[in-house]
User: Fold this.
Amino acid sequence: MAFNSFNYFVFFPIVFIIFYLARQKQRWAVLLVASIFFYATLKAPYLIAALGMVTLVAYYCGLRLAAIKAEGGRKAILIISIALLCLPLIALRYLPYLLQYFHILEINEEMSGGMFTSEGLVTLGVSFYTLQAISYIIDIYLEVLKAERHLGVFALYMCFFPKLVQGPIERGGELLPQLHQPYNFDYQRVREGLWQVGWGLVKKLVLADRIALFVNPVYDNVQNFYGPPLILATYLYALQIYFDFSGYTDMALGVARLFNINLTQNFNRPYLATSIPEFWRRWHISFSRWILDYIFKPLQMWWRNAKAWGTAAALLVTFLFSGIWHGVSGGFVVWGLLHGIYMASSALFSQRVRKFLKARKLDKSKVITVLQVFITFNLVCFAWVFFRANSLADGWYAATHLIYGVPTALRLLWSSLFPSVNSAGLLEFFQPLMLGQELNSVLTLVGLLAALAVLAILVPRCKDKHFPLGQPTLVRWAIYYLMVLVILFLGAYGTGQVFIYNQF
Amino acid sequence: MKTLVGKIFLLIMPFVLLIPSAEKQLAQETNNIIEKRAFLEAQLGEIEILSTGSSHGNAINPVFFSRRGFTLNNPAQDLYYDGQLVEIYLGRMPKLKLVIVPISYFAFEYQLDRSEARSLGAYYHKFWGIPPQHFDNYLDLRYYSNLALYGWKGYLDSLWGNFRDPNRTEMDASGFRHTGMQEVHESIEELEGGKYSVKMQEAGMRPEAITENLVVLKRLIESCQAKGVDVVLLTTPTYHTYYDHLDKERVKQWQELIQSVVKEYDIRYMNYLRDERFSSRDFFSRDHLNPVGAEKFTRILEEEVVQPVLG
Assistant:
């Protein structure tokens, strides 16, 4: 069941009430049963089997790793366990695609017992909990984490329902101790959690799904667009994917808080990053930490003799992995490669750029900072073109036609404003930018984004760190009701938009 | 905990109290299903030709038949709802002589209740009394609540007098829908888009639906034949940037299924999928005729189907 569905808003309160009323010793079991039930609602029994396999392999291999002292034996278990943990992911996500692509085997739905559809297998969550299990095993090998002995608690660590389908990817050292803590009802925490859930719903239903109505008609027929409408759709997609994924994350973190569990913050204003490395410290944080710790650092260590070039190569490979993790299609691979190139370039040249700016006393300049944010945002958006495009051909077309027609459009805008305002010209300029939507839809979206921009400026200046929870009662309740009204009346319902990261 | 429950109650209570008013307000609003039903029931005694189908069925404009016709097609409609609608009215149309059932590429593998358009099933349930094909759809709140169907925004729009069902298009008394289909889209020439269109349809196709769909189609034919009503199956015209991308194995299976039904019930099947009499000017999208194309197609059907079958 989706986080933004009515069923979920019946499900998690029921789970919370049962959890609250249960005895302390039974609470892990309540959450575990609820999590398995949650996963079972996907109606894909093979997913439960995959989760079961990954859980049991990680659990038993973790215990063996902790028990064995000989380095040779530990290494062998490490390699075998990682290979076994990757099996379900490869079998479910990559193998069917590769077999079909190379025409080795034609798999149809009947033959696969309903597992394989023409659009591939349902693989919700597999990518996330596989990485989580691998991090658990490696942390035990590196002796930074003790193996969990309680199978039930470990299973809960793997499949805790708020983070099961789209992460965050939780480290054992961060989540497991929390699962052992006794639960005490904390009213403040529950308030914060529910507020976060509400805010996540606003991001998903009101913003992301509404923006999708503008983006989809362009990117689903991308070869009919070029220039300003395509640029606008790309910028909007950047906002869409941020609101969608961070909205989901807020809902996950908010629900987890009800159970006194703090999951990892996954986003920290990523589009305010002044460089690509900083972007990756702010975007999908749990994933970027994972690839940094478990792929980049070992590679960088192996290639340390090559110094900066070794680091650059390690980054290229790391982000190629990132692209493939998101999907096998050409678009994701190109997206990953692009970020790899960005990161590698940063590793090779950023120090020189810093020295250059410092020498000219520009390193603390606000103008330079704004320029850096602007450039970083545009580099990220350029990569999003391939991420969003329906095919590599579409992505290539979009990338090569972004600025096509821009000079003409700018000349039209200029001539419509000077020497006097020409409304026909202005209409001709702005009409394509409506992306086929009605005026009131455009105005609604512009209004929402403007309101968000105002909030983004004002809220950080507010002394209330848990805004609006620290506000006077009347203000607080006015904001609560406003939030409910916004969700009910401005939510883009019936658009059929699932969470974007559900597909990974 | 009591404070929490009390405050949540306080927060949602005003909205809960509004629900009855919202349901009553929205019950007054109309939509395509209500409209189509009204048009149909106003002329039950006159209709001689009935056609069904999904949005592809809008390729038939009954106004251009020589006899009174009506199209029961609706976007995303599947064979189950085709059959249910025909069965409801079969006994109430004394002059009915011919039922035309469009069978598109996806028809045997598609079920509305299992598709992304499953919410449309709520319209059939609420406004035509047709139960969903699959039991689990009864868990969908939209089947029972106008508020769930149209949303709070719909309620607000209704209060302001601006309500418009998002699925509604203009239609005439023959059930033919006009709005949004007047123009030729240049994009239909574009090959990549055609590949994508087919891929999107195939994403909603499920081979396990074939058995159920064959059952409902056969039941439709048997019911009609029991009342002495002829049935003709047909495939509506499409543009080459669509049919060039159809999966050959799937096409072969689809045609074999049709032929098996045709032979079993001794009925006609007309395949206009690749008919060269239609140019890009006749299409709104790669697999949908525009009103100009629909007129042309209906006149062809008059000559090639209606006259030979009905005389």
Observations:
- The first helix of chain B runs from residue 2 to 27.
